[in-house]
Amino acid sequence: MRFKKTITSSLLILTSLTFLSLSSSCNKNRENNDVINISLISPWMEDENKPEQIRKSFESKLQAIIGNKVKIKVSYSSDDYLVNLQNINKGVVDLAFVSHSSFENYISENQDKSNRIKPIIQTLTKSFKYDTDNFIYVDGTENDKIISNAKLQSELFNEKRYSEWDYPWNGSVYEYFYDDKLVDFQRGIIWISGTDEVRQKIIKAWNEKDWKTFRSFGIVHGSADSGSKYLLPEKLLKKHFNKNDNAFSSLASEITNHSNYFINGKTKDMLKNNHFHICFDNEGSYSWTQNTKDNINKYTPLNNEKMEILALTDPLQYNIGVVNINKVNSEIQNLIVSSLIQLYTSKQDDWGKTVGFYGYAKYK
Protein backbone atom coordinates (compact mmCIF):
# COMPACT_ATOMS: atom_id res chain seq x y z
CA MET A 1 0.00 0.00 0.00
CA ARG A 2 2.80 2.36 0.90
CA PHE A 3 4.68 1.29 -2.26
CA LYS A 4 1.62 2.07 -4.38
CA LYS A 5 1.22 5.45 -2.70
CA THR A 6 4.90 6.24 -3.34
CA ILE A 7 4.55 5.41 -7.03
CA THR A 8 1.39 7.49 -7.27
CA SER A 9 3.10 10.44 -5.57
CA SER A 10 6.10 10.13 -7.86
CA LEU A 11 3.87 10.08 -10.93
CA LEU A 12 2.02 13.14 -9.71
CA ILE A 13 5.28 15.00 -9.13
CA LEU A 14 6.63 13.95 -12.54
CA THR A 15 3.38 14.95 -14.26
CA SER A 16 3.40 18.31 -12.49
CA LEU A 17 7.01 18.99 -13.45
CA THR A 18 6.31 18.02 -17.06
CA PHE A 19 3.28 20.30 -17.14
CA LEU A 20 5.25 23.17 -15.65
CA SER A 21 8.06 22.60 -18.14
CA LEU A 22 5.64 22.58 -21.08
CA SER A 23 3.85 25.64 -19.74
CA SER A 24 7.15 27.46 -19.35
CA SER A 25 8.14 26.50 -22.90
CA CYS A 26 4.80 27.60 -24.31
CA ASN A 27 4.94 30.86 -22.39
CA LYS A 28 8.47 31.47 -23.65
CA ASN A 29 7.42 30.89 -27.26
CA ARG A 30 4.35 33.04 -26.80
CA GLU A 31 6.42 35.81 -25.22
CA ASN A 32 8.85 35.72 -28.16
CA ASN A 33 5.93 36.37 -30.51
CA ASP A 34 3.90 38.61 -28.21
CA VAL A 35 5.60 41.86 -29.29
CA ILE A 36 6.73 42.75 -32.80
CA ASN A 37 9.26 45.60 -32.65
CA ILE A 38 9.18 47.66 -35.84
CA SER A 39 11.90 50.20 -36.64
CA LEU A 40 10.69 53.04 -38.87
CA ILE A 41 12.71 55.61 -40.79
CA SER A 42 12.23 59.09 -39.31
CA PRO A 43 9.81 61.29 -41.31
CA TRP A 44 11.37 63.97 -43.52
CA MET A 45 9.85 67.12 -42.09
CA GLU A 46 10.71 70.29 -40.23
CA ASP A 47 7.97 70.03 -37.56
CA GLU A 48 9.69 68.37 -34.58
CA ASN A 49 6.41 67.34 -32.92
CA LYS A 50 4.79 65.71 -35.95
CA PRO A 51 6.98 62.55 -36.15
CA GLU A 52 5.84 61.34 -32.72
CA GLN A 53 2.20 61.90 -33.68
CA ILE A 54 2.79 59.92 -36.88
CA ARG A 55 4.50 57.09 -34.97
CA LYS A 56 1.60 56.74 -32.54
CA SER A 57 -0.96 56.87 -35.34
CA PHE A 58 0.90 54.25 -37.40
CA GLU A 59 1.25 51.94 -34.41
CA SER A 60 -2.40 52.31 -33.42
CA LYS A 61 -3.83 51.80 -36.91
CA LEU A 62 -1.59 48.83 -37.70
CA GLN A 63 -2.51 47.25 -34.37
CA ALA A 64 -6.21 47.69 -35.14
CA ILE A 65 -5.80 45.81 -38.43
CA ILE A 66 -3.64 43.03 -36.99
CA GLY A 67 -5.88 42.51 -33.98
CA ASN A 68 -4.78 40.72 -30.82
CA LYS A 69 -2.60 38.10 -32.51
CA VAL A 70 0.52 40.08 -31.59
CA LYS A 71 1.30 43.42 -29.99
CA ILE A 72 2.88 46.02 -32.28
CA LYS A 73 5.57 48.35 -30.94
CA VAL A 74 6.85 51.03 -33.31
CA SER A 75 9.92 53.24 -32.85
CA TYR A 76 12.38 55.39 -34.78
CA SER A 77 15.29 53.34 -33.47
CA SER A 78 17.70 54.25 -36.28
CA ASP A 79 17.81 55.75 -39.77
CA ASP A 80 21.06 53.94 -40.51
CA TYR A 81 20.48 50.91 -42.74
CA LEU A 82 23.50 49.05 -41.40
CA VAL A 83 22.47 49.59 -37.78
CA ASN A 84 18.97 48.34 -38.58
CA LEU A 85 20.34 45.23 -40.28
CA GLN A 86 22.59 44.55 -37.31
CA ASN A 87 19.63 44.95 -34.95
CA ILE A 88 17.56 42.55 -37.06
CA ASN A 89 20.42 40.06 -37.03
CA LYS A 90 20.74 40.30 -33.22
CA GLY A 91 16.98 40.04 -32.73
CA VAL A 92 16.75 43.49 -31.14
CA VAL A 93 14.32 44.59 -33.87
CA ASP A 94 11.80 42.33 -35.63
CA LEU A 95 11.04 44.39 -38.76
CA ALA A 96 13.05 47.21 -40.34
CA PHE A 97 13.08 49.01 -43.69
CA VAL A 98 16.44 49.18 -45.48
CA SER A 99 17.79 49.83 -48.95
CA HIS A 100 18.11 46.81 -51.21
CA SER A 101 21.81 47.47 -51.81
CA SER A 102 22.57 47.64 -48.05
CA PHE A 103 20.76 44.32 -47.56
CA GLU A 104 22.69 42.65 -50.40
CA ASN A 105 26.00 43.93 -49.05
CA TYR A 106 25.22 42.85 -45.50
CA ILE A 107 24.14 39.27 -46.21
CA SER A 108 27.06 38.75 -48.59
CA GLU A 109 29.40 38.89 -45.57
CA ASN A 110 28.51 35.35 -44.46
CA GLN A 111 25.96 32.60 -45.07
CA ASP A 112 24.52 32.75 -41.54
CA LYS A 113 23.16 36.25 -42.12
CA SER A 114 21.72 35.19 -45.46
CA ASN A 115 19.90 32.30 -43.80
CA ARG A 116 18.64 34.43 -40.93
CA ILE A 117 17.51 37.71 -42.53
CA LYS A 118 14.66 37.62 -45.03
CA PRO A 119 12.92 40.35 -47.08
CA ILE A 120 9.14 40.11 -46.80
CA ILE A 121 7.95 43.55 -47.95
CA GLN A 122 8.63 45.49 -51.14
CA THR A 123 7.94 49.19 -50.70
CA LEU A 124 6.50 51.20 -53.58
CA THR A 125 7.10 54.84 -54.39
CA LYS A 126 5.62 57.45 -56.67
CA SER A 127 7.51 57.60 -59.93
CA PHE A 128 9.09 60.83 -61.02
CA LYS A 129 7.78 62.49 -64.14
CA TYR A 130 9.43 61.00 -67.24
CA ASP A 131 10.44 57.88 -65.31
CA THR A 132 7.43 55.60 -65.03
CA ASP A 133 8.98 52.59 -66.80
CA ASN A 134 11.76 50.25 -65.79
CA PHE A 135 14.05 51.12 -68.74
CA ILE A 136 17.79 50.52 -68.74
CA TYR A 137 20.91 51.77 -70.53
CA VAL A 138 21.04 51.02 -74.27
CA ASP A 139 23.87 53.01 -75.83
CA GLY A 140 24.01 56.38 -74.04
CA THR A 141 23.07 58.37 -77.16
CA GLU A 142 20.48 61.14 -77.23
CA ASN A 143 17.68 58.67 -78.10
CA ASP A 144 18.48 56.41 -75.16
CA LYS A 145 15.84 56.99 -72.44
CA ILE A 146 18.49 57.40 -69.76
CA ILE A 147 19.59 60.49 -71.73
CA SER A 148 16.37 61.77 -73.33
CA ASN A 149 14.33 61.45 -70.13
CA ALA A 150 17.14 63.02 -68.10
CA LYS A 151 16.88 66.02 -70.43
CA LEU A 152 13.12 66.25 -69.83
CA GLN A 153 13.66 66.13 -66.06
CA SER A 154 16.30 68.86 -66.39
CA GLU A 155 13.90 71.11 -68.25
CA LEU A 156 11.32 70.58 -65.51
CA PHE A 157 13.89 71.34 -62.80
CA ASN A 158 15.07 74.50 -64.58
CA GLU A 159 11.65 75.98 -65.36
CA LYS A 160 12.26 78.31 -62.42
CA ARG A 161 15.33 79.06 -60.35
CA TYR A 162 15.37 76.88 -57.26
CA SER A 163 15.23 79.92 -54.96
CA GLU A 164 12.02 81.04 -56.72
CA TRP A 165 10.11 77.77 -56.52
CA ASP A 166 6.56 78.39 -55.35
CA TYR A 167 5.29 74.87 -56.03
CA PRO A 168 2.99 73.46 -53.32
CA TRP A 169 4.94 71.76 -50.53
CA ASN A 170 3.01 68.97 -48.76
CA GLY A 171 5.30 68.86 -45.73
CA SER A 172 7.66 66.31 -47.26
CA VAL A 173 7.93 66.84 -51.04
CA TYR A 174 7.10 69.02 -54.01
CA GLU A 175 4.44 66.84 -55.66
CA TYR A 176 4.90 68.84 -58.88
CA PHE A 177 7.81 66.58 -59.86
CA TYR A 178 5.95 63.29 -59.34
CA ASP A 179 3.73 61.07 -61.42
CA ASP A 180 0.88 59.16 -59.77
CA LYS A 181 2.12 55.74 -60.90
CA LEU A 182 3.67 53.58 -58.16
CA VAL A 183 6.92 51.77 -58.94
CA ASP A 184 9.27 49.45 -57.06
CA PHE A 185 12.54 50.99 -58.22
CA GLN A 186 14.75 54.04 -57.79
CA ARG A 187 17.65 55.50 -59.75
CA GLY A 188 20.70 57.65 -59.43
CA ILE A 189 21.44 60.62 -61.68
CA ILE A 190 24.53 62.36 -63.00
CA TRP A 191 24.43 66.14 -62.66
CA ILE A 192 26.68 68.44 -64.64
CA SER A 193 27.22 72.10 -63.82
CA GLY A 194 29.12 75.03 -65.26
CA THR A 195 29.03 77.60 -68.03
CA ASP A 196 27.49 76.66 -71.38
CA GLU A 197 30.99 76.03 -72.72
CA VAL A 198 31.99 73.72 -69.87
CA ARG A 199 28.77 71.71 -70.01
CA GLN A 200 29.08 71.27 -73.77
CA LYS A 201 32.60 69.93 -73.34
CA ILE A 202 31.39 67.43 -70.74
CA ILE A 203 28.56 66.30 -73.04
CA LYS A 204 31.02 65.99 -75.94
CA ALA A 205 33.28 63.77 -73.82
CA TRP A 206 30.26 61.64 -72.92
CA ASN A 207 29.12 61.30 -76.53
CA GLU A 208 32.62 60.35 -77.67
CA LYS A 209 33.07 57.95 -74.75
CA ASP A 210 36.21 59.83 -73.81
CA TRP A 211 36.62 58.81 -70.18
CA LYS A 212 39.87 60.64 -69.50
CA THR A 213 38.43 63.96 -70.62
CA PHE A 214 35.13 63.34 -68.84
CA ARG A 215 36.98 62.55 -65.61
CA SER A 216 39.09 65.69 -65.87
CA PHE A 217 36.04 67.88 -65.16
CA GLY A 218 36.00 66.63 -61.57
CA ILE A 219 33.49 64.23 -60.04
CA VAL A 220 31.63 64.47 -56.72
CA HIS A 221 30.53 61.05 -55.47
CA GLY A 222 28.91 59.53 -52.38
CA SER A 223 30.14 56.86 -49.97
CA ALA A 224 31.09 53.48 -51.41
CA ASP A 225 27.95 51.81 -50.04
CA SER A 226 25.55 54.35 -51.55
CA GLY A 227 23.36 52.90 -54.28
CA SER A 228 22.39 56.11 -56.08
CA LYS A 229 25.56 58.11 -55.43
CA TYR A 230 28.19 55.47 -56.06
CA LEU A 231 27.17 51.94 -57.08
CA LEU A 232 24.61 52.83 -59.78
CA PRO A 233 26.71 55.58 -61.42
CA GLU A 234 29.71 53.24 -61.33
CA LYS A 235 27.78 50.56 -63.24
CA LEU A 236 26.63 53.15 -65.78
CA LEU A 237 30.15 54.48 -66.35
CA LYS A 238 31.43 50.94 -66.82
CA LYS A 239 28.78 50.23 -69.46
CA HIS A 240 29.32 53.50 -71.32
CA PHE A 241 33.04 54.25 -71.25
CA ASN A 242 34.25 51.02 -72.82
CA LYS A 243 36.90 52.02 -75.35
CA ASN A 244 39.94 49.74 -75.14
CA ASP A 245 42.45 52.54 -74.70
CA ASN A 246 40.21 54.87 -72.70
CA ALA A 247 37.93 52.70 -70.57
CA PHE A 248 36.51 53.22 -67.10
CA SER A 249 37.45 50.46 -64.66
CA SER A 250 36.02 51.17 -61.20
CA LEU A 251 35.51 54.15 -58.92
CA ALA A 252 37.78 52.64 -56.28
CA SER A 253 40.61 52.39 -58.79
CA GLU A 254 39.98 55.85 -60.24
CA ILE A 255 39.78 57.50 -56.82
CA THR A 256 43.03 55.83 -55.78
CA ASN A 257 44.99 56.58 -58.96
CA HIS A 258 43.49 59.99 -59.86
CA SER A 259 42.43 61.39 -56.49
CA ASN A 260 42.67 65.01 -57.66
CA TYR A 261 39.63 64.46 -59.90
CA PHE A 262 37.36 63.03 -57.19
CA ILE A 263 35.77 64.22 -53.95
CA ASN A 264 33.27 62.61 -51.58
CA GLY A 265 30.47 65.14 -51.21
CA LYS A 266 27.12 66.49 -52.36
CA THR A 267 25.69 68.81 -55.01
CA LYS A 268 26.71 71.92 -53.07
CA ASP A 269 30.34 70.78 -53.33
CA MET A 270 30.01 70.78 -57.11
CA LEU A 271 28.29 74.16 -57.23
CA LYS A 272 30.76 76.06 -55.04
CA ASN A 273 33.93 74.65 -56.59
CA ASN A 274 35.14 75.31 -60.14
CA HIS A 275 37.28 72.15 -60.03
CA PHE A 276 34.25 69.84 -59.89
CA HIS A 277 31.49 69.94 -62.51
CA ILE A 278 29.98 66.44 -62.27
CA CYS A 279 28.01 65.00 -59.34
CA PHE A 280 26.30 61.70 -58.57
CA ASP A 281 22.99 62.06 -56.75
CA ASN A 282 19.62 60.47 -55.98
CA GLU A 283 17.06 60.96 -58.71
CA GLY A 284 14.70 63.78 -57.75
CA SER A 285 16.59 64.73 -54.58
CA TYR A 286 15.47 68.34 -55.11
CA SER A 287 11.82 67.24 -54.93
CA TRP A 288 12.12 66.43 -51.21
CA THR A 289 14.41 69.38 -50.40
CA GLN A 290 12.41 72.51 -49.63
CA ASN A 291 14.00 75.71 -50.92
CA THR A 292 14.61 77.19 -47.50
CA LYS A 293 17.52 79.52 -46.78
CA ASP A 294 19.64 76.63 -45.51
CA ASN A 295 19.08 74.59 -48.68
CA ILE A 296 19.49 77.21 -51.40
CA ASN A 297 23.18 76.38 -51.93
CA LYS A 298 22.33 72.75 -52.78
CA TYR A 299 20.72 73.56 -56.12
CA THR A 300 21.84 77.09 -56.99
CA PRO A 301 24.78 77.33 -59.43
CA LEU A 302 27.29 80.15 -59.52
CA ASN A 303 26.47 83.22 -61.61
CA ASN A 304 26.45 82.58 -65.37
CA GLU A 305 26.38 78.82 -64.74
CA LYS A 306 23.67 76.20 -64.96
CA MET A 307 23.13 72.71 -63.57
CA GLU A 308 21.40 69.99 -65.55
CA ILE A 309 20.92 66.23 -65.47
CA LEU A 310 23.16 64.49 -67.98
CA ALA A 311 21.92 60.93 -67.41
CA LEU A 312 19.74 58.65 -65.35
CA THR A 313 21.29 55.43 -64.10
CA ASP A 314 19.78 51.99 -64.46
CA PRO A 315 17.11 51.22 -61.84
CA LEU A 316 17.68 49.67 -58.43
CA GLN A 317 15.03 47.88 -56.41
CA TYR A 318 13.38 50.23 -53.92
CA ASN A 319 13.56 49.79 -50.14
CA ILE A 320 12.50 46.52 -48.54
CA GLY A 321 11.18 45.39 -45.17
CA VAL A 322 13.26 42.61 -43.59
CA VAL A 323 12.79 40.28 -40.62
CA ASN A 324 14.79 37.75 -38.63
CA ILE A 325 13.08 34.45 -39.50
CA ASN A 326 14.32 32.87 -36.27
CA LYS A 327 12.20 35.37 -34.34
CA VAL A 328 9.26 36.03 -36.66
CA ASN A 329 7.52 32.90 -37.93
CA SER A 330 5.89 32.61 -41.36
CA GLU A 331 2.37 33.11 -40.00
CA ILE A 332 3.31 36.43 -38.40
CA GLN A 333 5.30 37.43 -41.50
CA ASN A 334 2.23 36.98 -43.70
CA LEU A 335 0.08 38.81 -41.16
CA ILE A 336 2.44 41.80 -41.14
CA VAL A 337 2.60 41.96 -44.95
CA SER A 338 -1.17 41.73 -45.45
CA SER A 339 -1.79 44.28 -42.69
CA LEU A 340 0.62 46.82 -44.17
CA ILE A 341 -0.95 46.39 -47.60
CA GLN A 342 -4.39 46.92 -46.06
CA LEU A 343 -3.10 49.98 -44.19
CA TYR A 344 -2.04 51.72 -47.39
CA THR A 345 -4.96 50.59 -49.59
CA SER A 346 -7.37 51.97 -46.99
CA LYS A 347 -5.39 55.25 -47.04
CA GLN A 348 -4.54 55.05 -43.33
CA ASP A 349 -0.75 55.07 -43.67
CA ASP A 350 0.36 58.49 -42.44
CA TRP A 351 4.00 57.46 -42.13
CA GLY A 352 4.98 55.89 -45.46
CA LYS A 353 4.52 58.96 -47.64
CA THR A 354 6.77 61.01 -45.31
CA VAL A 355 9.74 58.81 -46.29
CA GLY A 356 8.79 58.11 -49.91
CA PHE A 357 6.84 54.87 -49.36
CA TYR A 358 3.43 55.17 -51.03
CA GLY A 359 2.54 51.49 -50.98
CA TYR A 360 3.62 47.97 -50.06
CA ALA A 361 3.66 44.61 -51.80
CA LYS A 362 4.73 41.12 -50.86
CA TYR A 363 8.42 40.66 -51.66
CA LYS A 364 9.02 38.27 -54.56
From TrEMBL:
- Pfam families the record matches: CypI (PF06646)
Q: Which residues form the signal peptide?
A: 1-21
Q: Which residues cross the membrane?
A: none
Q: Does the keyword Signal apply?
A: yes
Q: Which keywords annotate this record?
A: Signal
Tell me the protein's name. High affinity transport system protein p37
Gene source species: Mycoplasmopsis anatis
